[in-house]
Amino acid sequence: MQVLVRDNNVDQALRVLKKKMQREGVFREMKQRRSYEKPSERKTREKAEAIRRARKLARKQAIREGLLPAPPKKKLPERKPPLPQTAARPAG
């Protein structure tokens, strides 16, 4: 995994790296590998994850086809409009 550091901004690069690692599932895998997982538990977990993914896919498909109502969208807080710019008066 590679992240470019622009203008010596290491904090920004770290944030981007963490986001990429989160998307790839690195943190989840690290957490699972902290302790031993029996093969039977692993199969059970993977099967449950597959079922969860299939249900999510089916739900999204049903929403697209109009069989289920779409979930309500989150409302963002309203922003105040910017103040109008006043023309600078010439001195004199």
UniProtKB/TrEMBL annotation:
GO terms for cellular component: ribonucleoprotein complex; ribosome
Region: Disordered, residue numbers: 28-92
Compositional bias ranges of the Basic and acidic residues kind: 28-52
Keywords tagged on the record: Ribonucleoprotein, Ribosomal protein
Recorded coiled-coil stretches: none
Biological process according to GO: translation
Pfam families: Ribosomal_S21 (PF01165)
InterPro entries: Ribosomal_bS21, Ribosomal_bS21_sf
Superkingdom of origin: Bacteria
Molecular-function GO terms, alphabetical: structural constituent of ribosome
PANTHER family in the cross-refs: MITOCHONDRIAL 28S RIBOSOMAL PROTEIN S21, SMALL RIBOSOMAL SUBUNIT PROTEIN BS21M
Recorded family membership: Belongs to the bacterial ribosomal protein bS21 family.
Name of the molecule in the record: Small ribosomal subunit protein bS21
Organism: Bradyrhizobium niftali
